[in-house]
Structures are given as C-alpha cells and as structure tokens.
Target: phosphoglycerate mutase (2,3-diphosphoglycerate-dependent)
Amino acid sequence: MAAEVVFETHSWSEDNDSGVASGWRPGRLSPRGRDLAIELGRRRRGGVDVVLSSDLRRAAETAELAFPDGTVPILYDWRLRECDYGDGNGMPAAQLHEHRERHLDEPYLNGESWRQAVRRVSGALRDIAERWDGQRVLIIGHVATRWALDHLAGGVPLEELIIADFGWREGWEYRLTV
Model:
C-alpha cells in the first residue's frame, strides 16, 4: 500500500512574526499567512484527494483557508503536531533552538524529545499510507511532520535533520509505503 504525499508547512503565523516557538500552542495566522494559505489552495487545488492537517489552530486555519469550499475533505490529526516543547512552548525561537540537538533524545522540560515527536508523527503517516492507498494526500503540518516524512520515507537520520536548516519552500513530495 502506498500514498503519494505532498507536505506543506502551516502558513505564516503571528508567532512567526514575533520570533516565538509556538510548539503546542495553537497560534493564529498573520494577515500575510492568511494570504499565503489562500495561495497554497490555488497551487494545490485539483491536485489532491484529501487534506490531512495537524489539529493546532495555525495548521487547521491554513487548511480551511486553502480549501474553503469543501470540495476536498479536510481531516485533523493531533499526531501531526509540532514537537511539544513543554515549558518552552511560546518562548523565543532563537533561544529554544540554540541547542536543539540536545533534545534529540532528551525531552524538553514537561514536553517531548524530537525522536518522540517523529515517532508520534510516523504513526499517523503509516495510517495515511494504509488508509489513502493509491491517492494523493496533502499534509499540512510543522517541522516535526516534515522530519518524520524525511526520516520514514526518505531514510534521513534524525541526527542529520536536527542540525540542518529547515529550508522552507512551496511543498515537498514523498511516497509513503507500508
């Protein structure tokens, strides 16, 4: 079983404007982010069978603005969330990520490690490959979502991902198999 996956990050948020690491905070899109979400819909409309989104507000809002007419079903899955930074949710991003590699296996205080986050997301990805076999799926998520895709579908070690620049762009494509 296999699904074709297009991954897009949630659109630009108010926290992005402020340099804040949202983590598990819901977040809201900025005016710029709302425009970018609408553009994402124009770019992807007609090319996907279903949208699966993180349930965090900034991702859900991205999906809802991109596909407002209901012609493409939108489903929400908490497992597609960002890494839970615990007590670091909402702190300045530069400060939180300064030593991100320390949290590959060591959870953030009252949160989770990156490896735990990728494992959580990978469970959702396996379900997607099985449930949406032969279909093209758009996933809207976060850094942890992309790392899980790179790791699970691309075989990239987490040790490499955690030290690499995220390198935003308009979507990544993967083939998920189970």
In short: The chain has a mean pLDDT of 95. Residues 114-131 form the longest helix (18 residues). The chain has seven helices and five strands.
